[in-house]
Specification:
It contains 13 helices and 20 strands. By secondary structure, the chain is an alpha+beta fold. It has three domains: 244 residues, FAD/NAD(P)-binding domain; 79 residues, Elongation Factor Tu (Ef-tu), domain 3 (Beta Barrel); 64 residues, Helicase, Ruva Protein, domain 3 (Orthogonal Bundle), CATH 1.10.8. Strands 1, 2, 7, 8, 9, 10 and 19 form a seven-stranded mixed β-sheet that branches. A six-stranded antiparallel β-barrel has the order 12-15-14-13-16-17. Strands 3-6-5 form a three-stranded antiparallel β-sheet. A hairpin with a 3-residue loop joins strand 14 and strand 15. Helix 1 packs parallel to helix 13, helix 3 crosses helix 13 and helix 10 packs across helix 12. The chain is elongated. It starts with a strand and ends with a helix. Bound molecules: flavin-adenine dinucleotide. The site of flavin-adenine dinucleotide has 36 residues, from helix 1, strand 2, helix 2, helix 6 and helix 13.
């Protein structure tokens, strides 16, 4: 088999790269190789099936990693609105700037992308699991797990990272590049829950509570997020926690999550509230002190775990120090991070092919003719459409530059 440009991986960035290359030079043949039986499987699961494909708030603070020109690449390519309108997919956004297809259907996005690819004459070679890459003359030979080969002049590696291996991304292509001598930055699940000791979480399973959560290491607050914090029997979850998961990479063993479960009140206000409730419910048991402020399970959890008083004792027995202590801890409830999540439940990979391995065009510094895009690179975005936007932008950028290099 021969093609001018081979794209490894039929995910978001690979589909965009193929479209970018073929649009730049329609005379070139472009083939996507994909190990699964069809392209775009992960895309179908994004945004809970609604595909949060970009954000109206594309600022550098939402991107992380060692690739130097992330924002230049995002700003140089077509906006998500322009890119998707070329495929007849209008976008809408919610009140937080998260952008979705008007259909709110990831399947419709994939269908429109595939229509565009077929219109452009891009070939799909599914069931081709890349096992090795060999240089040959001024091109490459890609070998598959079942001994097929594909000769090509250029390669765009768009095979994703380690997150969500159920969608084909098991890091195998990152390992191929590592074996070829590429520098790989430390890998870690991102946009993912964080594990805490199950003992500390007893009584909180299934609880959802609004508040702020900060990642703290060595006494320093690394980042604070606001939103709905969710508890499972062994982890803290929710978008606000997802956005802190990447800190595990550099703070393993020293990371704490600090929750403020009354972020809408200052401490004095919270204390006044507790004093008022103490008077109102003087004869009731301590377990009713926080009834009305929190749902049942977190209300009982907090008094049980913070106060040194039996929960069936009368509220009138609490002293001012008890209330101060309770207010303090409601605003500063800490959970030591016991570990990161498994790759299966992570949405994104932090780390990957190090930025020093590619030039501004996303071409390999050492192997000319080889380009990279998407999550395989050491770039990760926050939850909220930033990762798919990186996939589209870097894919279009690498595709265009790759076609121009021929
Ligand atoms: C459940 C879930 C929900 C998400 N929701 C959102 C969201 O709403 N918004 C957002 O911005 N981001 C979201 N993400 C993240 C986003 O999907 C990814 O960042 C993005 O898909 C990365 O695109 P990519 O093309 O780089 O890699 P991928 O989309 O992972 O595609 C890589 C492709 O390469 C193929 N491949 C891997 N190895 C080989 C091999 N050896 N040979 C051939 N092919 C191979 C894989 O099968 C896969 O099809 C979500 C992720 C998950 C898991």
């Amino acid at each position: 088999m021969y093609t001018d440009i081979a794209v490894i991986g039929g995910g978001a960035s690979g589909l965009a790269a193929a479209a970018g290359a073929k649009s730049e030079n329609p005379d070139l043949s472009v083939t996507i190789i994909e190990k699964l039986d069809r392209v775009g499987k992960k895309l179908l699961a994004t945004g809970n099936g609604r595909c949060n494909l970009s954000s109206r708030n594309l600022v550098p603070e939402h991107y992380h990693g060692s690739v130097r020109n992330i924002m230049d690449i995002i700003n140089s390519a077509a906006t998500a609105e322009e890119f998707f309108m070329t495929m007849g997919v209008p976008l809408i956004s919610d009140n937080q700037g998260r952008m979705y297809p008007r259909s709110e259907s990831a399947a419709s996005v994939l269908s429109a992308l595939r229509l565009r690819l077929s219109e452009l004459g891009i070939a799909e070679e599914c069931g081709f699991e890349l096992k090795n890459i060999r240089k040959s003359g001024d091109g490459f030979v890609l070998g598959s797990a079942d001994d097929r080969t594909l000769k090509c002049r250029r390669v765009i590696a768009a095979a994703g990272g380690y997150a969500a291996p159920q969608f084909g991304t098991d890091g195998s292509v990152i390992r191929i590049f590592r074996d070829m001598g590429y520098k790989i930055s430390k890998l870690c699940p991102a946009v993912a829950p964080l594990r805490a000791e199950p003992d500390r979480l007893r009584g909180l399973k299934g609880v959802r509570v609004k508040g702020s959560v900060s990642a703290v290491s060595g006494g320093k607050i690394l980042k604070t997020e606001y939103g709905e914090i969710q508890f499972t029997e062994n982890s803290l979850s929710g978008i606000c926690v997802f956005n802190l998961a990447r800190f595990f990479k550099d703070h393993e063993g020293a990371l704490t999550l600090r929750l403020d479960l009354a972020a809408d009140m200052d401490k004095a206000e919270l204390l006044r509230y507790l004093e008022m409730v103490k008077l109102q419910r003087a004869e009731l048991p301590v377990q009713e002190l926080l009834t009305g402020l929190f749902a049942r399970n977190p209300a009982v959890y907090l008094v049980k775990n913070i106060l040194n008083v039996p929960i069936l004792e009368k509220i009138s027995k609490l002293c001012r120090e008890d209330l101060i202590n309770l207010a303090d801890r409601i605003k500063k409830l800490e959970f030591t991070v016991a570990g990161c999540s498994s790759w299966n439940v992570a949405q994104v990979t932090a780390g990957g092919i190090h930025g020093s391995c590619v030039d501004k065009e996303l071409q390999s510094v050492r192997d000319k003719g080889l380009f990279f895009c998407g999550e395989i690179l050491d770039v990760d975005g926050d939850c909220g459409g930033y990762n798919l936007q990186w996939a589209w932008s870097s894919g279009l950028w690498a595709g265009k530059n790759c076609a121009r290099s021929i």
